[in-house]
Structure formats: structure tokens, C-alpha cells
Amino acid sequence: MSLPADHPAPPQTLSVGLLLVVLVVAFEAMAVGTVLPRVAAEFHGLAWYGWASSAFLLASLFGAVASGLLADRRGLALGAGASLSVFAAGLLVAGLAPDMPTFVVGRFVQGLGAGGLGALPFAVITARYPEAARARMLAAVSSAWLVPALTGPLLASLIAETWSWRAVFWGLAPVLALVTPLCVGPLRTVNGPAPAAPEADQASDASGLWPALGLTVSAGAVVEGLRRADVPGLLLVVAGAVGMAFSARPLFPAGMLRLARGLPAALMLRGFAAFAVLGANTLLPLALHDLRGLTLTQAGSLLSVGGATWTLGSWIQAQLDRRGGPAGRPRRIRMGAALLTLGLGVTSAAVLGTLPLAWAYAGWCLTCLCMGVAYNANSLLALGSVPDSGAGRLSGQLANIEVLMVAVAAGVGGALVARLASLEAAFTLAFAVTLLGSLVPWVAATRLRPGA
Known about the structure:
transmembrane; mainly alpha; Growth Hormone, Chain: A; membrane; 18 helices
């Protein structure tokens, strides 16, 4: 897909505003991963640990579809403003929560907004940036995670230890109030109200909200069922799995389960790579804290290492794209998928004590570096497969497959932690599941092709 030659370049303020929003969301993501063990300990809510991540992610799934629909029908400015407002409300609820269930509710509300914000960069880059600038802008979006990755865990742990973990949440709400005009204003200028779609098309688009809601509820049933060791729990898992199968069909292109060539394979690659790496990421701070005795700051430093090397990988991908063009993307994705499994295996072995702890940092560096290269290359292939009018829908698909798979991974890991008496056994099984998931991108990477 390419924009017309006379298409006006997006204003610089749009790029700045978009990057600032990503910066705030990235800081919150890195901070929550660091302080979540403290939250669970204060509320005596280790059994809810998986839900603290899954609720956020499942709500993000629905939020991504809703924001994509809103962007396609009413313009990116309205979608961005709504997502930012809901995200801020979730921060306040989580920060003021009196117990773990209320905290989970706050995470759910926060996720509704974050889903739209996660999809926003893809929609903006696809609809408003020429092909030559997309790789550079995607790398800039990834680099916006660098400062939060390096400072977020440290600042969050210091705030939690000297003041309260609650400030990590509600302290960002005023910042969002300042950042929002910088992002929404330029979008309103550049992207005016979208032309009205025919009534039949509007009805078809709106009907996508119901499958998204069904997928969110069904995946939530699976997560809750895994957490329970009784017959109702088993029934929830079965019903949720069936519901997911039916709800996913209208939301994603046909052929995903058989890894059909092109976009279906690209989406599955993204989903299972996220399942493996980001699923493990939700468990690393707790495993390092409870199994290896690290402080919150020390455990969070591993997340900092991952964020920095992921950013480095994204910039390497952009440079390779600039020098060699899009033709080398499939090859880079295949290599990244293979090395990703190797790095994840080394990290897991070190966290569990089979290897020295220092190997966890080496393995996580390799894992996240490969994710930075392969993830961005895969995203660019997907972005090239849709016309301008479908940018919002594709952004929802990219965000949905990612958050769905990470939510399932976090749910499985949280269920194992809740149900097994031995934390070492729980984390061993959880990391084994993520390693198995990392094998799927190996196959999907052989079935990619440049988008039409």
C-alpha cells in the first residue's frame, strides 16, 4: 500500500504527540510489571496474580477493536481521545483500590483504553506516513520504550519502597492530561471527520464489536477456569474454548489456524511470539523475586535490559530495511524466530536456577533483540497488505492477536502459581509452556510473503 505522491506530509507535532503518548503508556507498562509482586503481597492476592495481567490484556482486546472501528468511521482523533480518557480512569481506579478484586477491575478499565492506544501507532503510520517513512517511524515508536525501559523499573521500585505503589498508577493521570492535546490536536487537523460509510457497511463494521466482546468474555472464562480446581472450572475452560473458536472467526482473516500464506501467517507469528516472550515477561519479576530472592529493583532491571535490547533490535531492522529494502524482511523474521527460542530457553533455565543468574540477562538480551528485529519486520509486512480504508481494522487485528495470546499465557502462568503448592514447579511448567509456544513462529515464518 502506498499513499498518493501529493499526499501532504504529517505535521511534526503529530509525530511528537504520538511518541509522547507511547512514552507514557510504556512507562506504566514497565512500572506495573515491577510493582505487581508488591501489590499481590499487600492484598494477599497471589491467587489473583494472573488476573492482574489477563484482565488488562483481555480488555485491551475489546478496546483495540472498538478504537479501530471508531477510527475508521469517525477519524483517528476521536478514537485517540476516547482511549486516553478511559486509560486515565483505569489508572485512578487501580491506584485507589482497597483490595485485589478492585485492583483487577481498575486494570480492566485501564486495558480498555490501552487497547486503543496500542493500535493507534499502526493506524496512524499506515494512514498518514508514506512507505519510505514507515520503518523509521515504527523504529521511533519502539525507541519511545527505551527511556521507560531503563528508568521505569527503578523509579517504580523507589516509589513503592519510599512512598506507595499506588503513586505509580495515579501519578500518571496528570501527565496524560498534558500529553493528550499534543496527540489529539494534530490528528484532528490532519485527519478530519471520516466520510460516512453506507449503512450496510456500517452495520457490518459495528457487528464486529460483538465477536470482540464474545472473544473477551470467552478468553476470560478460560483464564478463570484454569485458576479453579473444580468441576465448574473445567466447564468454564471448555465453554470458553468453544466461545473463543466461534468469536475469533469474524475478527481475523480465514486460514489462521492452518497458517495460510500472507497475512494469516503473519498474524499467527505475531501472536505466538507475543505468547512466548511477553507471556514470560509477566512472570519474570515474580519468579526472580520469590525464587531467586531479588529485590523489586533487581528483578525489574531484567525488564530494563529487555526493553533496551528490543529497541536496539527495532533500529537494526530499520537500518537493514533502509539499506536492503523490504526483500530481506522474511529472512530476518525466520532468523529472529529461531534465536528467540534459544534466548528464552537460556533465560528460563537461569531464572529456575539450572544456570547461573547472570545467564538470565544474556538470554533475555538475545530474546528481546530478536523480537525487535522480527516483530517490526513482520509488522511492516502486515501493514503492506491493506488499503488505507482498512488501516483501523488491521491495527485492531494486530493488537488483538497479540493481547489475546499474552492474556492466555498470563492466565496459564497465573493459574499454575495459584494451584500448585510449589512455586518452583509452577514456574517450571509456565516457562515450558512459553517455550512450546515459541516454536509456532518457526513454522509461520516460512509462510510469509510481501503484502499485495
